[in-house]
Write a structure and sequence with these properties.
The structure holds two protein chains of two kinds.
Chain A: H1 9-28, H2 38-51, H3 55-59, H4 64-99, H5 117-136, H6 142-229, E1 275-278, E2 286-287, E3 291-301, E4 304-313, E5 319-321, E6 323-331, E7 338-344, E8 349-356, E9 362-369, E10 374-375, E11 378-385
Parallel strand pairs in A: 5-10
Antiparallel strand pairs in A: 1-3, 1-11, 2-11, 3-4, 4-6, 6-7, 7-8, 8-9, 9-11
Helix pairs in contact in A: 1-4, 2-4, 4-6, 5-6
Chain B: H1 2-21, H2 27-53, H3 60-139, H4 144-224, H5 232-237
The chains are: A alpha+beta, B mainly alpha.
């Protein structure tokens, strides 16, 4: 089982994001690989642009609405980047597959097919026949004349044969020449597409940098707006400031009120936990028991979270009941990873951790329950927000 | 020659389908067979005149020798035709694949052009965001951190737009090269068709030559009657 209880959960989430990045993004795209079109990612882009409209302009004097807008923008940007990454990967894979034919040498006919002696053999026969004809030219004997005529016919056949041999040899040379020219053109085209492949790689690398940069940017932007409005922390108190405004519901703050991102102590927006989540149909990321389907619902009220999880797994060896259902609740902690006590429908108890994923629409879930024969005991997977 | 070429094209087009549906023909095996048949024929053909010189004109072995070389010649030329047919079927399938690739790459090049336009649009949008944030920083100093990040994003998007521009140029160049390649494939196919037609023409000429050679052997026998087996009746009288 992957170790999730690192000393610094935010750092843990960041570390995990590195390893799970690519797979998680494709989870976010919920199986769009292989079918994502440019139109789809453009739609996601347009949506992002709508969500983030005027955010930077309003950030100078904004408050809670802008913090919430930054969070929504981060989510929309992550969705766009994931959709585009799926598109780029799909297009790139297709290109590599179809261009593979350029890597193979083209068919060339063997130069050793017809014996080189063919022409000389025909020429030798022709010489023999010509000599015989010359020998019998003066002979008036009717039988000899008949033989000479026969030799004449043979000579005509041999001359025609020699001509066709020469013609064929010319076509063989032409085929060889055409094959050489074709091979050169193939190598040139393969090289050109190789250059394209390196540009595609560079493009993919830049997209990845951009994805990470946008996530970081929106997070920092929200923090900057929030921190600018927070009162200076009291030196006597180490507890984080708590705001009465619930950002998860986008409630507007009063004009003079600070703009905290949540009414809980959580360092990340509650939208990273609250809501309905599901395990992606394809390309899901998990560790341990393989989820078939998982549905998670999380609610929050005044810093108190509660939720339900219902899942079905592919039964590992020794398990006959692949269904897991439990409820959980607890107080939101001042850490990105939230840990709650769970109570399963079959009476077992345990703990569940909710860890914000590498993108805003991803949530890692890690649960452990009491050991009971034939039952799933633990699970670890990444869910996508519905 | 034209007729042979037409028949060849039909045959090869049919076998092209077969090549796609089944495994590619084993050209190496066909080549081996052809070389074996060639060696067999060459040995007999080189030896034919020497062997016949030691026989009487009406010796049945003389005609048998011509027939034997003629059969070996037919077998050689048939195996050559088999090889050329298979090679052509494989080659024509490659040409079809190249044409298909060109078709797809032409569409992909259009898509790359659209992606370049997208990158340009994204660059404009992020520039606008950056300008707006620069104004907001004047009101709120805490935004300096995000501004720095946004400046980095602007640089990334700009580089990506440059890469998109390069990709457009490369895609157009690659498609042009692919068009040249398809033309070379077609030229190779034409050359192969002509080689096959010439090979068939030669095959007909070899048949004609051996027919003439057989005719000469018959005339040599008829004018000399040397080596003709004696009639059975006369043998009985003796």
């Amino acid at each position: 089982m992957r170790k999730l209880d690192l000393p610094n959960p935010r750092k843990a989430a960041r570390l995990a994001s590195g390893a799970l990045l690519t797979a998680a993004l494709f989870c976010g795209a919920a199986g769009l690989i292989g079918q994502t079109t440019r139109d789809q990612y453009r739609q996601a882009y347009n949506l992002w642009q709508q969500v983030q409209a005027n955010l930077e302009r309003d950030a100078g004097n904004g408050g809670a609405p802008q913090v919430a807008q930054a969070d929504r923008s981060a989510s929309a940007a992550a969705s766009f980047e994931a959709t585009r990454a799926a598109y780029v990967k799909s297009a790139s894979d297709d290109a590599v597959r179809r261009r593979s034919i350029l890597q193979n040498a083209t068919t060339r006919t063997s130069p050793d097919l017809v014996p080189p002696a063919v022409a000389s053999l025909a020429a030798g026969e022709l010489l023999t026949v010509n000599k015989a004809i010359a020998k019998f030219t003066a002979d008036k004997d009717p039988g000899i004349q008949e033989l000479r005529q026969s030799l004449e016919r043979e000579r005509v056949a041999l001359v025609a044969l020699s001509n066709t041999i020469q013609t064929r040899q010319g076509t063989v040379a032409a085929t060889a020449q055409a094959s050489v020219a074709l091979e050169q053109a193939r190598a040139k085209a393969a090289e050109a597409f190789g250059d394209q492949a390196s540009q595609l790689s560079r493009n993919a690398a830049l997209l990845e940098m951009e994805r990470a940069a946008w996530a970081d940017y929106y997070s920092k932007l929200a923090d900057a707006i929030q921190n600018a409005n927070l009162p200076a922390p009291s030196p006597a108190s180490a507890a984080p400031a708590v705001s009465p405004v619930d950002i998860s519901t986008n409630a507007a703050p009063t004009a003079s009120a600070p703009a905290p991102r949540s009414n809980s102590v959580s360092p990340v927006p509650l939208v990273r936990y609250v809501g309905e989540w599901t395990f992606p149909v394809v390309n899901g990321t998990f560790h341990g028991a393989t989820p078939v389907s998982v549905a998670l619902a999380v609610r929050e009220n005044n810093g108190h979270a509660e939720g339900t999880l219902s899942g079905r797994f592919q039964p590992p060896p020794g398990v006959t009941d692949p269904v897991v259902q439990f409820t959980f609740e607890g107080e939101i902690a001042a850490t990105p990873a939230q840990r709650f006590t769970l109570k399963a429908n079959d009476g077992r108890s345990g703990v569940v951790e909710l860890i914000p994923g590498p993108a805003f629409n991803l949530l890692e879930v890690n649960f452990q329950m009491d050991l009971r024969p034939n039952k799933i005991r633990s699970g670890n997977f990444i869910l996508v927000k519905k | 020659m034209k007729r042979a070429s037409s028949v060849f094209i039909c045959t090869v087009l049919l076998s092209c389908g077969a090549v796609r549906a089944q495994e590619a023909p084993d050209l190496a095996a066909l080549e081996q067979t052809e070389q074996k048949r060639s060696l067999e024929w060459e040995a007999l053909a080189n030896d034919m005149n020497d062997r016949m010189a030691r026989m009487l004109p009406c010796d049945p072995r003389a005609m048998a020798a011509v027939n034997e070389v003629s059969r070996a010649s037919d077998a050689r030329l048939e195996s050559l035709a088999d090889y050329l047919r298979a090679a052509s079927a494989k080659a024509f399938a490659e040409t079809a694949d190249a044409k298909n690739l060109l078709n797809i790459e032409e569409r992909a090049a259009v898509e790359v052009t659209l992606e370049r336009a997208d990158a340009g649009q994204e660059q404009t949008a992020v520039d606008t965001q950056s300008d707006a944030l620069a104004q907001s920083v004047k009101q709120r100093a805490s935004l300096e951190g995000p501004q720095k990040l946004l400046t980095e994003i602007v640089a990334i998007v700009r580089e990506r737009a440059t890469v998109a521009e390069q990709r457009t140029i490369s895609a157009d160049a690659a498609v042009a090269l692919l068009r040249e390649l398809v033309a070379k494939f077609e030229a190779r196919d034409t050359a192969l068709r002509e080689e096959f037609a010439a090979s068939e023409a030669e095959r007909a000429r070899w048949s004609g030559y051996y027919a003439a050679r057989r005719a000469r052997a018959q005339i040599e026998c008829s004018i000399t009657q040397i080596g003709t087996p004696a009639p059975k009746g006369r043998q009985g009288k003796r």
